[in-house]
TrEMBL record, chain A:
It is a multi-pass membrane protein. It comes from the Bacteria. GO terms for cellular component: plasma membrane. The keyword Cell membrane does not apply. InterPro entries: ABC/ECF_trnsptr_transmembrane. It comes from Lentilactobacillus kisonensis DSM 19906 = JCM 15041. Keywords: Membrane, Transmembrane, Transmembrane helix. It is found in: Membrane. This is Cobalt transport protein. The chain crosses the membrane at residues 21-53, 65-84, 104-125, 145-163, 231-253, 273-293.
From TrEMBL, chain B:
Belongs to the ABC transporter superfamily. This is ABC transporter, ATP-binding protein. It is found in: Cell membrane. Its main location: membrane. Probably part of an ABC transporter complex. Responsible for energy coupling to the transport system. Keywords: ATP-binding, Cell membrane, Membrane, Nucleotide-binding, Repeat, Translocase, Transport. Residues 5-243, 297-528 form the ABC transporter domain. Pfam families: ABC_tran (PF00005). One of its GO terms (molecular function) is ATP hydrolysis activity. It is a peripheral membrane protein. The keyword Transport applies. The keyword Transferase does not apply. PROSITE patterns: ABC_TRANSPORTER_1, ABC_TRANSPORTER_2.
Length: 298, 550
């Protein structure tokens, strides 16, 4: 099935302020619960959204990265939480003992999933809240900062392209970052950064002059992009805020949260169904709204 | 008549420099002028142009007066300056600051405080005028060089300035894209009455569009008049003669008496017909290529894709014989640079094999490869690695493990005129000098194969010929050259074979004469005007005047 272009989706047409509030709500929700099954519900919803909005290729790459990140966080969590029972496996080497306990595993799993979910949210945010939408949201608060953020987006993209070209072209000068020991490779990469800095400084000066030449700083800036609130925006943000308030109340009832690693003894507790239900609706709200938006087509 | 710009007794010297770059310049520019500034590299063209834009005025010792609309340039507010004088730089990549074309167009209007609806109106109007409406929502880094330069021009034009200054705006573009860009400029001048001031090395198209030309010699204006008369004046200077487009050069060299010097192809053809001029082929140049040369580099059925959606290189086959000079011609974005990157082993194709001296090129050790294959990218600064020009050469000699580094450094320093800039930072020298340094680094090894990506980009015509002659010498000494280029006349003059890059593969790999003689669009101006009489003629010295008819 051919994927709908991102700009044609309901989510990317939501008012920038509504999108910003929605993403903030998602981040808050991620921090409210720490049970594995709740975190799993959150990440599964985000993966569905990711496949829909970012595409299979991009999401598959993120999942691969997320997988290795998960293993790393799991390892460190089990390493740092050695005193809990039951122990599933242990390892002795001289005076060093490593205990792999079930609570530490579950806690590490929950933390890893929450962190990876956070990365997925930022990946979505990056696509939905484009630089000009970000400027629109943050300009009234900090106009210069918003402008700088927007310019940074473009400069970072150019920086990455240039860095890749440098890595390739410096091989013609025998600076090959893929060969040699780790120290030698690190030195080569640092040297390439140095070249990059020299080259970028020279061009940044010229770019700044050309910005001046086009009237930058001559008077108070205005904004081209103007966004108007639609009924759908209000419906979307009201629903999401209502769902957030409900989940905050559930959290207040101490559901879906364990205060100590020692309490991580089971993946599923019957009360977890409550936050899972509401969170699934909140995290999948963009997809649900897409359906309603399509259903309302004339 | 109202004066848009008035320069009186302007002299300028850069800090700590004893010599003046501009010496007693007097110039008046009238509304609606299309003025081109010609002159040698280093004659002060860009410095003069930058003096017309307050924000870009160089620091240094300045005397004299510059008035814009009868107001001293220093008294112009930032807002007035932005709305009166626009500036388009040489490198299209330097100007954009936003990520999308539409935001780049809105940027200057937001700077001057335009309300949202006015911005939208101006963008709609301008993008339709320049046929940019289809590119509006594209990311800046997805645009080709030509489209990007058009967006840069639009981003200046949207402020509705009285005067637009352009510093060699087409030097990074292929000839057809450059022609399109200059035609847009001509429309802007003719339909909107906006004054254009431009510096250019490629005078062939611009001379036909401009109504006025000034010539900078010895840091002052030595000529101010029509482009035709200006070119006649340039012919008197031995070095400036290289700058003259080939059609007027043909008429001036052969002393053909004619009322108006032809510049364009149509004018050249008309002059030949009217005066019944007859040309014969000059003695053909001797090819250095031996009939029995063996293959040095072979690419078999190679395919390469960046994003798995489209093959940039598609089942390409190529054999380069030892001692050959092959030029690969094609538009911006046709995949020439990608192909060169594959041929040198910097990138590995997904399919097919590339063999250099029967070894897979990407399996060669980096240190061995740089001794046998040298590469100059189209952005030489990305290959620099040291703090001074001298240090660049020392590092390269060291990497190549040369037995006598001092004499190699001395040789290339002399060959590429680098003596005066040995202690300069390679990132601070001019684009042309960076190109020369890049070549010097590439040729320190005396490689078997030299791969050049747009080696003449942005160079003035004199330096181009200078480089061409040096490369020819290296070819005679046994170096095989593969070059990607937009420069038809350079390819026609120096290469042995040419091929066209299109749709991911090379087609029509022919000897240079056969290649250009059979082309219709991608050929030299001389071939276009005398093709009926001497089909193999590519350059002005390929033909002799047989009779003047009258």
């Amino acid at each position: 099935m051919k994927r709908l272009p991102l700009q044609m989706t309901f989510f990317s047409q939501v008012h920038p302020v509504a999108s910003t509030i929605y993403f903030t709500e998602l981040i808050v929700c991620l921090l409210l619960f720490n049970h594995v099954i709740v975190a799993l519900a959150e990440i599964v919803s985000l993966i569905i959204c990711g496949f829909y909005y970012l595409g299979v290729k991009s999401m598959t790459q993120q999942l691969k990265f997320g997988g290795s990140f998960l293993i790393m966080i799991l390892f460190f969590n089990t390493l740092l939480n050695q005193k809990f029972q039951p122990i599933l496996w242990h390892f002795h080497w001289g005076v060093i003992t490593y205990k792999f306990s079930y609570p530490a595993f579950l806690y590490g799993m929950a933390m890893a999933i929450v962190l990876i979910s956070m990365l997925f949210i930022f990946a979505l945010l990056n696509k939905i809240l484009t630089p000009n939408r970000l400027i629109y949201v943050f300009s009234p608060i900090a106009p210069r900062l918003a402008m700088l953020v927007s310019i940074s987006f473009s400069l970072v993209a150019n920086f990455i392209i240039k860095f890749r070209r440098l890595i390739t072209l410096q091989k013609t000068r025998n600076v090959d970052t893929t060969s040699g020991s780790l120290i030698i490779r690190t030195k080569k990469v640092l040297h390439i950064f140095e070249i990059m800095l020299q080259d970028s400084l020279a061009s940044a000066m010229e770019t700044a002059n050309l910005m001046d030449a086009r009237g930058f700083g001559s008077t108070k800036r205005t904004h081209y992009r103007s966004y108007h609130w639609q009924v759908a925006d209000i419906f979307f943000i009201s629903t999401s805020t209502l769902l957030l308030l409900v989940t905050v109340y559930i959290r207040w009832l101490k559901i879906g949260w364990s205060g100590s690693v020692a309490n991580f003894t089971t993946i599923f507790q019957p009360t977890d169904v409550l936050p899972i239900g509401f969170l699934l609706v909140l995290f999948l709200l963009p997809i649900i709204s897409e359906g309603i938006y399509r259903a309302c087509t004339n | 008549m109202h004066k848009l710009v008035s320069i009186k007794n302007l002299s300028f010297a850069y800090p700590d420099q004893p010599d003046k770059v501009l010496d007693n310049i007097n110039l008046t520019i009238y509304p609606g002028d299309f003025l081109m500034i010609a002159g040698n590299t280093g004659s002060g063209k860009t410095t003069l142009l930058n003096h017309l834009k307050k924000e870009l005025m160089p620091l240094g010792n300045r005397q004299g007066q510059i008035l814009i609309n009868d107001t001293p340039i220093d008294n112009l507010s930032k807002l007035e300056s932005a709305q009166t004088v626009g500036y388009v730089a040489q490198d299209p990549q330097l100007q954009p600051v936003m990520s999308k074309a539409i935001d780049e167009l809105a940027f200057p209007l937001e700077n001057i405080g335009c309300p949202s609806n006015e911005i939208e109106r101006r963008i709609t109007e301008l993008t339709n005028f320049l046929a940019l409406d289809q590119s509006l929502n594209r990311a800046i880094n997805e645009l080709s060089g030509g489209q990007l330069q058009l967006v840069n021009l639009a981003s200046v034009l949207i402020l509705r300035p009285k005067l637009i200054l352009l510093d060699e705006p087409t030097s990074q573009l292929d000839p057809l894209t450059a022609q399109t860009f200059l035609n847009v400029l001509s429309r802007i001048q003719q339909e909107l009455g906006i004054t254009i001031v431009i510096t250019e090395h490629r005078l062939s198209t611009i001379s036909g569009l401009a109504n006025r030309m000034i010539l900078l010699q010895d840091h002052t204006i030595s000529f101010d008049g029509s482009p035709t008369k200006g070119i006649e004046k340039m012919f008197q200077d031995e070095r400036l003669r290289y700058f003259i487009p080939s059609i007027p050069k043909l008429f001036l060299t052969n002393h053909i008496p004619i009322s108006t010097l032809p510049i364009s192809v149509s004018q050249g053809q008309a002059a030949i017909q009217t005066d019944h001029l007859k040309f014969t082929a000059a003695k053909p140049k001797q090819s250095l290529l031996s009939e029995t040369s063996k293959p040095l580099l072979q690419a078999k059925n190679i395919s390469f894709t960046f994003d798995q959606t489209r093959n940039v290189i598609d089942h390409l086959n190529l054999t380069v014989n030892r001692g050959d000079w092959l030029s690969i011609i094609g538009k911006n974005g046709s995949g020439k640079s990608t192909l060169l990157s594959l041929l040198i082993g910097l990138t590995t194709p997904q399919h097919g094999k590339i063999r250099f001296e029967n070894q897979l090129v990407w399996k060669l050790k980096t240190v061995d490869r740089i001794k046998k294959i040298s590469f100059l990218s189209q952005t030489p600064s990305l290959q620099f690695t040291a703090d001074s020009v001298r240090q660049e050469l020392v590092v390269q000699a060291d990497q190549l493990q040369l037995s006598d580094p001092a004499s190699a450094i001395k040789r290339v320093t002399k060959q590429f005129n680098l003596t005066k800039i040995l202690d300069h930072n390679p990132f601070d020298i001019s684009g042309g000098q960076q190109q020369l340094l890049g070549l010097a680094i590439a040729l320190m090894a005396t490689p078997d194969l030299l791969i050049l990506d747009e080696a003449t980009k942005g160079l003035d015509p004199y330096t181009k010929v200078f480089i061409g002659k040096i490369l020819k010498q290296y070819q005679q000494d046994g170096v095989t050259i593969v070059m990607a280029s937009h420069d038809m006349e350079f390819c026609a003059e120096f290469s042995d074979h040419c091929a066209f890059m299109f749709d991911g593969h090379l087609n029509t790999l022919l000897s240079t004469t056969a290649f250009f003689a059979n082309n219709f669009f991608f050929t030299t101006p001389i071939n276009r005007i005398v093709h009926d009489q001497v089909p193999s003629a590519l350059l002005f010295d390929d033909i002799n005047l047989a009779s003047e008819g009258r």
